[in-house]
Amino acid sequence: MTEVPRLTAEHRRRWALQVAALAEAETDDEGSPEWQAKMVERADRRRAAHGTPPLVEWWETKTEPELHRRARALGLLS
To answer: Is 0.85 surpassed by the pTM of this model?
Structure first.
């Protein structure tokens, strides 16, 4: 039987730092369509440089946008 690694105090400390940083950066501002397009282009350039395929256009998959809208409707996003 394989032993499951345990979370250490250091793991928990790092997690707390990440949670705090994400909470500080959290915003409901999704940016303008122009800004969003720029970020996708930037990400795709980085992905291409590493041999990774480009991001899938949001309209090509309903899962992510629908999940986001549903979470917002349920009040799960602040």
So the answer is: no
